Amino acid sequence: MYRNKKLLWKSIAVPVAAALLLVGCASGADNGSGAATDELSEGMRGATDSGDPVSGGTLSFGAYSEPAALDPAVAIAAVTTGGVEMLNIYDSLLRFDTESNEFVPQMAQSLDHDDDFRTWTLTLREGVSFSNNMPVDAAAVKASQERYAAKPAPEAALWNDSVESIETSGDRTVTYTLNKSWSDFPGLLTTGPGMIVSTESDGPDGKFTPIGAGPFTLAAWAQADSMTLSARDDYWAGEPNLDALRIVYLPGTQVGLETMYNGGIDSTFVREPDEVNEVVERGMSGYVNMTAAGNAALINASEGRPGADPRVRQAMQLAVDPQIITQRAFDDPDLGNGTIFPEYSRWHTQTQSTPVAPEEAKQLLAEAMADGYNGKLEVIDASDPASQQTALAVEAQLEAVGFDVQVNLMPTIGDQVRTIAKERNYDLAAWGLSYREADPFPKMQATMHSEGKQTYGMYTSPEMDSLIDNLQLASDKDKKAELIDQIQQQVNKDVPFLVYSSFAEFVVWNPTVHGVVGSSNSMALFGTAWKS
User: What is the distance in angstroms between the CA of the first residue and the CA of the last residue of the chain?
Assistant: First the structure.
């Protein structure tokens, strides 16, 4: 825990990025129990670690998708985008502990702050080393974080906008001076900036080698198949019980579940409501994070796109009913909620989403078309059954008010990411905003602020920038709640995106797995895990 003033949380239910979390990879099972939001809460579920740890063996984990890289300055540190792989290679200075609802020291020994949350002092543990035997000292931390800040990293903009300087004192002390008060700064040290990379990772030929201080090292990476991480006998927290961690890349989450049920893998990841309900009904153990707006659609407001006209964005908002979306995709209309933070969240506010009003949508669209808009709209989604049903429901509701819709289903998640995030070649696109219970601010800044790196063409406004800036400055929970309510009001006005529902992210494992430790963005650390 922190010395001085603790940062206390009251999460009742979690990245984000983190994360690039997409609608996809599940069929709409007819179970409609709503367990994803009604029964689940943030943290470990059914995990018991009775008995003495057993040494040896390989634990296999079915990943959501294969990472583009193992560099935390490139890949988003979240379970869906290589976060499990990176966390187990690099570890992190801090981690989020759902039991205490605090950001707690992990690779670091402590983190202190002054009264106005502008000066933070990090004390490192003794004896922590990289896998190349170099020490993880203050100089290494500073070098890694300055490297991160200099690259187009997922959270580099937020870091550069907030951290005025990094100073070292001796081998174990790092002092961060912020240019503004920020009580939730520790959250950044649980994700990419907190994953310390060795100075030897960047080779003279420009090739990156993942050298970290985590419990495992990269042993092999068979592209599009699997990755094997070998245990380190000199890990700072003690030699791992496992010999190796094997991450497998399967076609979809349902395949991951079936493979785990049949004994082919030990653990996997699910987030689609029907699959989450399935593992809940089976009484499976695992680690749960709740993600608000995990099931959403981005509206491209770039010049020349239909969404550049606020009337078109508002018409979409008024035409699409989230309950119809979740009825079609998951046979559960109760999951549908257009509010950013639904009732399960401690950030739930009085302001609700704009009510569906098809007649008003028709009028706004007619006005835009009278001014030259042709009514055409391209909708991007994934090709799995739930996503197909989502796209069909969106298409039907938009065409009912006068849009001329073309649906384009992406063959893979990678194609969807490239089309939306890199090429920005879309009008309305399925995505996951995934605001997390522990600290929603970083992802809100990335996706709503004009300086955010994950807006991908969405509309931003000076009013929203001001609200997001003030949210960062707020240290009182009531003040944060007030600002989030105002953010919901601004979203209702600006319509940068549509929210369909929230998702529960579930890292699930079979009964033989023990000792897994959770952290931010649904990432799991296997350094103390073992198999019975």
Answer: 31
Treating both helix axes as pointing N-terminal to C-terminal, what angle do 273-281 and 253-261 enclose, rounded to 10 degrees? 20
**Euclidean distance between CA atoms 342 and 499, whole angstroms:** 11
Q: Which residues of 263-286 are buried (b: 16+ CB within 10 A; e: fewer)?
A: eebbbbbbbbbbbbbbbbeeebbb
- CA quadruple 177, 347, 487, 431: dihedral sign: positive
Q: CB–CB of 90/196 below 8 Å?
A: yes
Amino acid at 492: N
- Alpha-carbon distance of 58 to 222, in angstroms, equals 17
Q: What CA–CA distances, in Å, run from 115 to 6, 111, 112, 167, 168?
A: 11, 13, 10, 19, 21
pLDDT, tens digit (0-9, with 9 covering 90-100), for 27-77: 233 333 344 445 688 899 987 766 899 999 999 999 998 998 999 999 999
Q: Classify residue 257 by burial, with Cβ atoms within 10 Å: 0-12, 13-18, 19+.
A: buried
Amino acid at 183: S
Number of other residues whose CB lies within 10 A of the CB of residue 204: 5
Q: What is the spatial distance between Cα 81 and Cα 456, in angstroms, rounded to a whole number?
A: 17
170: left (phi over 0), alpha (psi -120 to 50) or beta: left
pLDDT digits (tens, 9 = 90+) for 404-419: 999 999 988 778 988 9
